[in-house]
Amino acid sequence: MEGLDFTIEEATIEEIQQAFAEGRLTARKLVDFYLHQIETLNPVLRGVIEVNPDAQQLADESDREKERSKMGLGELHGIPVLLKDTIGTNDKLNTTAGSYALLGSKVGRDAGVVERLRKAGAIILGKASLSEWYKFRSLSGVPNGWCARAGQGVNSYVPSGTPCGSSSGSAISVAANMVLVALGTETHSSIICPSDHNSVVGLKPTVGLTSRAGVIPMTPRWDTVGPICRTVSDAVYVLDVIAGLDPRDEATSEGAKFIPEGGYKQFLDENGLKGKRLGIVRHPFVEKVLDTAELAAFELHVDTCRKRGAEVVDNLKIDDIEIILEPNHSGEVSIMMAEFKAAINIYLKELVDSPVRSLADIIAFNESNAELTSIEVITLIELMQSPEKLTEYDPHTFIAAEKTDGLGEHEKAILEKLENLSCNGFEKLMKENGLDALMTPGSRACPVFAIGGYPAITVPAGYASDGMPFGICFGGLKGSEPKLIEISYAFEKATNVRRPPPLGGS
């Protein structure tokens, strides 16, 4: 980036801050650029639900702060951020999980991660679309990336392909240069999968490392908030800001213990693969790769890791992996239903104002407002992939969740089973082989990381024969973010695979 060659498209946080410092860019110009991108691209991509009406004013205030300050203001100062529409903001923006049922509801204060972003000088640009209600209202009756308020989110690389979910809008918007960085949430693959499918970096932190206070809950024991960006370094800059103790989320009292002194930026090491032990589980993660281009790329990337000093331990096995990968079989869905009902009822009752106050109210709203809650906009994705799904939502998941009654003996037995699956599966694999990370193609290993609250990061790794992006995912034990950052950053620098999408790229 030199002189007049600087362009905002595909720029990193570091490059943006350098442009700020040299007077070549202001926060206002940056915000205006992204607002124009959203105005131009969002009618097609539907990655953004709504824009913050105060974004330009906040950018002007940021520029004035820069003029007054004689000291550095931090990496995120003046940086626009999109939030998944489940992350609460006490401003003019709605927080609705993509549903009309929560339109007009008022939160009492910003979510914990939003408070941290604002304190760091970030500009809340708006809310990103998602798979409505984390796709939990119907696990099978609606395409990934669809919500009533925004319609069908579109993959900017392959419009006929899935953007995945549930943090689809966050990944779409970052990929298409409608924003620099975004926040997503993950319970079961919701950061890793859309990031993988949209050729961006998604970082799922250890559960408790980032606060979930003020975030619409899914399953609190597994929910986590993390960054979706175009580079590993950008994701780490965001993680450094949003990670930390929050008295409103008791899980952070344990999670905060994992945060290293000096933060995570120190682990951005181009030689980070050297001396690392990476595990490969071919069955079923590699065996299930059907696209020859993706399979060839994975093998090439494994060889690159070796050449960069990593020791690859191949042909490993995770015990009971078939059970772990089937959420209905493992019992994971049963826990989701029981915890969602309890957690969403608490969340709704604590809102300052809301059209609905319970899961039962949401079900009643959906039944009474079919014109607002069914799939109204037929998109290319739906026509090509899911013609049989162009009907009203199948509401069985919400109704089944409403029939639950907390964590009874049945649910407690499932939780014990899931803990044993994690301890005797992934943890055993990691510890017995002295691994620093599990390396897998795509997002297939997400259930492994979900039920144990483990961290993972996906990095762009190539494009399938039809142009669909795919990534390489690195996952580790709780608190292993420093190692995962070293590994993923060095991998990214060694491979440098990402390219801008046909829709929205430079």
From TrEMBL:
InterPro entries: Amidase_dom, AS_sf. Residues 30-484 form the Amidase domain. Pfam families: Amidase. This is Amidase. It comes from Sesamum alatum.
